[in-house]
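Today's session is about reading a structure prediction critically. Students often jump straight to the picture, but the first step is always the sequence itself: look for stretches that repeat, for charged clusters, for runs of hydrophobic residues. Only then move on to the predicted structure, which in these notes is written as discrete structure tokens rather than atom positions. Here is the chain we will use throughout the hour.
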Amino acid sequence: MTQTSNNYDVIVIGGGNAALCAAITAAEQGAQVLILEGAPKPYRGGNSRHTRNFRCMHNAPMAVLTDSYDEQEYFDDLLKVTGGKTDKKLARLAIRSTEECYRWMEQRGVRFQPSLSGTLSLSRTNAFFMGGGKSLVNAYYRHAEKLGIEVRYEAQVSHLQLNGDRVDWIEFEQQGRTQRLSPKSLVVASGGFQADTDWLAQAWGPAAKNFLIRGTPYNRGVVLKNLLDQGAESVGDPTQCHAVAIDGRAPKFDGGIVTRLDCVPFSVVVNNQAERFYDEGEDVWPKRYAIWGRLVAAQPDQVGHVIIDAKSINLFMPSVFPPIQADSIEELADKLGIPADGLRITIDQFNGACRNGDFHPTELDGLATEGINPAKTNWARPIDTPPYYGYSLRTGVTFTYLGLKVDETAQVQTPTGPIKNLWAAGETMAGSILGQGYLAGFGMTIGTVFGRIAGQEAANYASH
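Below is the predicted structure for this chain, in token form.
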């Protein structure tokens, strides 16, 4: 055991967006700050490396954002995807803070660009990072260095020692040594437990072993479990998570956003029995893409298949992997490994249910099927123009929603009251706001808003 220097005011556990926002905010208040990032330096940044946008409220056109997107519309969108399972006070706090956060981010080196075209349809609601999430992470680390924030990589935190209503010390391992520190205050921003597939399987059952993990393999929930075991109050359901349908050829870990498939609204989606199982055109993709991971998880072998034709191949951002191509439906079925006769029947039934109407790929067009179940309620065009294309689908988990319960100051709670010198931000407390479902760009909203709040509160505590 090595007892290292204890002259830190604030220690931030984690190295992604929320952690960096907390560390920067605390340092700008004059605090001496240490970041403990569990990943090696080339993989720093957690899931934030794979993000690309930030959902932002604005009452008029602003910078790269068009038109307006006011608090109530933003809140209504959140209620729709969560089914009302959210802490409304914390949700509104996050939403109201986003406009000011945009300016704060720019002032610390983050650069934005207009939204991408196609199925995303986010020009009003989401500001895209120029260079993606990796660029944002690097900008924050450059700013942190200017502020004198110390960063230790491959620093795996294993224990926070709770003593009544405060944390006395923490332990972490680095370069084979176990070290102990006793800072004045701490911020936990080390993500969920999705990379621990055994823990996922405890919640989901054996099916979870077939899930792919879109993000960092370092978010294993060690700090989260350590605090919950010591009496920190939990929030959220362990079976709820940000899970999307991704290309089935993606790696087990760290495939990132390039493995996501945006073609579902223009497709027919079937399972291994070549049967449709949900409305592919229920809503615009940014409001519905995050339900498809759970839908695929409920299918045999946790696999689905997207079927599109030549009319739709250029309407969406492609996966990093090319689609499987064939000149007939039967040939495509053979290549996908699903029953050819069954897929032909499904496609013929779907095509027969399509009706004439105007097709508008970037908005709800009401072009719906008639007489089949499940219906397709928008963008329903026959799959009849060769060549035909297919993608396999697997459940890709981004982050889990079981987390630490916090209040509006981001302070971690216990059943008997708050932990006086402990705050949480980002995915490790996102279940306070996301009871289920997901809204594109909202994870970055939670991390940015509550990271800044946690950093401010931790610095204030340390200074007094």
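Discussion point for the tutorial: The chain has two domains: 2-237+401-463, 243-396.
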